[in-house]
Known about the structure:
By secondary structure, the protein is mainly alpha-helical. It is built from eleven helices and no strands. It has one domain: Alpha Horseshoe (Serine Threonine Protein Phosphatase 5, Tetratricopeptide repeat). The longest helix is centred in the last third of the chain and has 24 residues, at about 160-180. The N and C termini lie far apart (about 55 Å).
Amino acid sequence: MTSASAPAPSQPDAVLDFWFGDSLAQGWPVVPRKPLWFGSDPAVDDTIRQRFGPLVAQALAGGLSDWEHPPRSRLALLVLLDQFTRNLHRGQATAFAGDARACALALDLLDQGRHRELPPIGQVFVFMPLMHAEDLALQDRCIGCFQALLDATPADHSVARDDLAGHLQYARLHRDIVLRFGRFPHRNAALGRRSTDEETAFLVDGPRFGQ
């Protein structure tokens, strides 16, 4: 007698499993995932394109509204809109096409306090759309979110605390750039924006981020 095969994961779970591995279950990554999350690897981009490209296109077109509830599937939608767009459209304006919807969905979770239903590493990726926003108020809120999560993390969770301190530092760097320029100069070329002389000088050796 043959046993039935395990059911295939739902589409949101497939996204979360790829992006987070077992870190959602653990609360924080046991095996570092920063190369996947913050690296620039064409092989990773190709894998995401093959596995999730159609879902990203649906999300950018305003679809997958059934993913918006509960917080876990909304997190998967945020990954599509705020992360996978950057993998699939590096150096192109489309890399940022999901940002407005991602911000709205993230802010809704935060305003309701429902982000706390997610494990800490899931909350980090709820905050990321705010870090990507060219909006000073959202940048300030992002810093507050990371600070609150760091403050709530027990002292004996040293890896999580160290990682969160790093995220908080990056949030402050993002905020300082938006405070200075009102936008991220490193996006100007992709978005067809003319850089000011000050931005051009800043891009030579100032702190910048992948996208």
